[in-house]
Amino acid sequence: MAQKVTVSVIKADVGSVCGHTRPHPDMMAKCDEMLKEGVMQGILEDYYVTRVGDDINLFMTHYKGENNKDVHKLAWDAFYEAAQLARKMHLYGAGQDLLADSFSGNIKGAGPGSAEMEFEERKSEPIMFFMADKTEPSAYSLPLSKIFLDPFTTTGLVIDARAKKGFDVEIHDVMDHKKVIMSAPEETLSILSLLGDTSRYAIKRVFSRAGLGTAAVVSTDKLNLTAGKYVGKDDPVCVVRAQSGMPSVGEYLQPFMNTMLVAGWMRGSHYGAFYPCSPEDSTPTYFDGPPRVCCLGFQLVDGHLQGLEPMGSAPGVHVPVDYFKGAEWDYVRNNAVKASKFMRTHGPFMPAVLGPEEMEYTSRPEVLKELTKRMENLD
Ligand code: 13P
Ligand code: 13P
Ligand code: MG
Ligand code: MG
Q1: Residues with CB in 5 Å of ion ligand 4
Q2: pTM, rounded to two decimals
Q3: 378 domain-assigned
């Protein structure tokens, strides 16, 4: 049996220029330099450094398995060095997602988000990387449900014999740190009964029931809980494998043609519409949003990320397929701005703002404290 390859995405916001906008190019260059060193040291096979909004995303490939200490430490060190640059420039939120004082073996619980999958590389292995800013992991639940549970979205569930066997969905209760694996299509309605509560449940993984391994993985490290207080929405990534028994590239993209409201946006406390775009266009510029989602594609080739550059280019020099860059997505972008603007007409009232348990900022406890003496019982 061939050696299994691991695709790891580790991401963090360690500072940005003028509010929660975008990291300084020097920070990206520093991460690139550190990961290049990681390849030389034999920790990584390949990597790609990119960003969505103010979040730096490190795509890494290696043969060390999930939760590998060397891989996690490399990512931590890259973010640490980028945060040092951010601190020097007094950037906004410098070091924001580095919650631990030092690295202690695993990135989980230390602040950065991670999504990793180990699998046997197929003859042709198209991998898509979704990255979102100003939102939470459960933002992917609706599109992933359509992709893996809905034959009106994914025709492959009907006409591809392997996809037709269905998919197992690992759902996390991000509040109580519990998980359950449920099977689609048999348990579709029960799966949706959980996932509909986006404040508590999120898809962590999806597995092929045709023996192809993991199909999708989402970063679900809830920063508010790891930090013991709300310090930022996770701005999650989702990595998926496409075609030949998995949903096709086009089936993965299709749900994003719909306008979806997601939690996050300004101060992590509002509902705004998902705005699909290129990483170049991912700087949040309207009320710190709208929440951005990007999607980049590579072929995996013997553990390397093959993009549009000629074979044999230096490691780290990659040009992925940029799925949301094109003009057909202008339609969704326009709708996203319209929907977001509509939500803004409600100002500080629900449903423009999130429910009390999800608000990242609130002054209510202080207001209630001040009112203790004036608050009277009703008759
Ligand atoms: P091609 O015939 O262009 O390979 O496309 C097949 C397919 O599955 C498209 O989703
Ligand atoms: P980030 O989570 O992207 O840092 O944004 C936080 C925020 O408060 C935006 O208004
Ligand atoms: Mg930020
Ligand atoms: Mg962010």
Answers
A1: 13, 53-55, 133, 235
A2: 0.96
A3: no
Q: List the domain range (segments joined by +) for residue 83.
A: 5-371
Which residue has its alpha carbon closest to ligand 2 atom 3? 134
Total domains in the chain come to 1
Alpha-carbon gap, residue 29 to 26, rounded angstroms: 5
Residue 155 in this model has a pLDDT that exceeds 80? yes
**Cβ contact 167:184 at 8 Å:** yes
Tell how far the Cα of 232 is from the centroid of ligand 2, in angstroms.
Answer: 6
Residue 377 lies in a domain: no
Residue 376 lies in a domain: no
Catalytic positions are 13, 230, 233
- Nearest ligand 1 atom, CA 248: 10
State pLDDT tens for residues 300-338.
999 999 999 877 777 667 899 999 999 999 999 999 999
* Residue 288 CB–ligand 2 contact under 6 Å: yes
Nearby residues for ligand 3 (ion, Cβ within 5 Å): 13, 20, 54, 93
Contacts of 291 (CB under 8 A, 6+ apart): 132, 133, 134, 135, 139, 262, 264, 265, 272, 273, 274, 275, 284
- The tens digit of pLDDT for each residue in 111-151 reads 899 999 999 999 999 999 999 999 999 999 999 999 999 99
Tokens 């073996």 belong to residue: 105
- Kindly report the length of the chain: 379
| Tens digits of residue pLDDT in 242-261 | 999 999 999 999 999 999 99
Of ligand 2's listed atoms, the one at least distance from the Cα of 13 is 4
